[in-house]
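Hi Y.,

Following your request, here is the sequence exactly as I used it, all 248 residues.
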Amino acid sequence: MQYRVEGIVIRSMDYGEGNKIINVLTRTNGKVGIIVRGAKKTKSRHGSLAQLFTHGEFLFFRNSGLGTLTHGEIIESHHLLRERLELAAYASYAAELTDRALQEDESSGYIFEQLKACMAAYAEGKDAAIITQLYEMRILEVMGYGPVFDACVSCGNVVGSMSLSAHSGGVLCSRCGYKDSFAQPLGDGALKLLRLFRRMDLRRLGSIQVKEETKGELKRAMRLLVDANLGLTLKSRSFLDQMDKFPL
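Below is the corresponding structure, written out as tokens. Let me know if you'd prefer a different format.
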């Protein structure tokens, strides 16, 4: 059967001497695997479509298992995300997180739009760390792990200091903090931003400026939530951690 889909390449790997297999997050058909024959050859018609982060239209044939690309058109190459090391690192993390979190053929229209907006925000020079945390929140939401920040998840209290309990799925107030000895205290600024992140659509993102101290809190908070709920070991995140230790 022939399929025509709009999608973003979230994984690209060599297959045989001259071919590639790509995983594409599509707007309408979930995540699909496609063989791009001859993609590694210099004069390949479809080599550029097999590159990571490429947003395009893909026409492929599939009965079962992997599809085979027959034609395609690039909508946005996102070459800048491959050329600049820092952007490549963040975009690779967003792509790998998407690939690992979503199942084959799982409904993906909303997260496709969020990933598309995420890649565009990277390319536009917006704060890559904040963009990434916003996208992590969208992934948690889609996977059914959207955290509760507006009130204590234990007693419903909405006033006073709060700490993040990743295993409880949200924040605990000072009276309930004893229920999780690993809960991370949250400053007022970080808590306000997490509440904003929970509601924010990446397609409507304006300019965001965050203090370095607060950015550190946000990163730790999102790391706790992603690890507790998804439990994924991602090579791209390890590289991001190395970049933090040795800034460019």
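The first strand starts at residue 2 and ends at 15.

Thanks again,
Q.
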